[in-house]
Amino acid sequence: MKTVMLIINPVAGKRIAQTELFDMVNVFSRSGYLVTTAITQHRGHAVELAASAEGLGFQLVVCCGGDGTLHEVINGLLRSGSTLPIGYIPAGSANDFARTLDLPTSPVHAAFAIVRGKAYTIDVGRFNDDQYFSYIASFGAFTQASYRVPQDTKNNLGQFAYVLEGVRDIALIKPHPVKLKTENRSYRGNFVFCSVTNSTSVAGIVKLDPDIVDLRDGLFEVILVRMPRTPADLNRIVRGIASSNFNNRMFEFFKANDLEFQMEGDVDWTLDGERAEGTERVHIHNLPHSLTIYR
């Protein structure tokens, strides 16, 4: 009988009802799993739980929560050197990465997808030396929305909460002087936004063509947005984001495995929707096939 640690975030956007929890556990039990549930008590608790899972004899870690909960689970596993596979039951406000993985939105159906699915290896991003992200690292305009919106507002408004908070940021847009070096070339300029992603969706607003995004090719998709100087520039940015067409002078769009940023001052980043303190130098590296997920 396989043993599974089911990590549940009780304050995630789609709060799991007791009946749904019972049905989820029943799916695993009937499929030959011995389930131990672990309810997170505070921020960072899922990191601790996931880090302890392999040492406690568990063979699978299942995360039930939003992108932030998944972020913690992945950090717990990779920081501890664990190679345990994971399952993901999306229950957050945005569920960007779940959308990319095409996971069911129903908790019970997501549980079925895990027990009936196959192991699938995907890339993970490393931010500096000791932080990891599943689908996005970003800085600049709008990136604070994901961690600045109160959890209750996320729960009530879902993706729209991010849009509302992002609108507040428009008046605060400021350029960040950046020098960026990748394995292929260098970039330099004043940018208002940067995203380093392994996903087709960011807050359900920025979307990338699934034919472009490969979760296991060892490469990130990178978007840099230049500082708008005129209303026409701002219009180009809005049209580019709305159409997912970044072929205009306000954008740099490319793929890369390794990125070294040099910033002016400490710039905060967002990793999978969670705040990360930035430094003047940031190193992001793609770790190919470093996480196994059932889907």
Condensed summary:
By secondary structure, this protein is of the alpha+beta class.
Q: Could you name the CATH topology of the largest domain?
A: Tumour Suppressor Smad4
Q: Structural class of the secondary structure composition?
A: alpha+beta
Distance between the termini: 20 Å
Q: What is the highest CATH level, the class of the largest domain?
A: Mainly Beta
List the helices and strands and how they pair.
Layout: E1 2-8, H1 18-30, E2 33-39, H2 45-53, E3 60-65, H3 67-79, E4 86-90, H4 96-101, H5 107-116, E5 119-127, E6 131-133, E7 136-140, H6 145-148, H7 151-157, H8 159-169, E8 176-182, E9 186-197, E10 201-202, E11 206-207, E12 220-226, H9 231-243, E13 251-256, E14 258-263, E15 269-271, E16 274-276, E17 281-294
Parallel strand pairs: 1-2, 1-3, 3-4
Antiparallel strand pairs: 5-6, 5-17, 7-9, 7-15, 8-9, 8-14, 9-12, 10-11, 12-13, 14-17, 15-16
Helix pairs in contact: 1-5, 2-3, 7-8
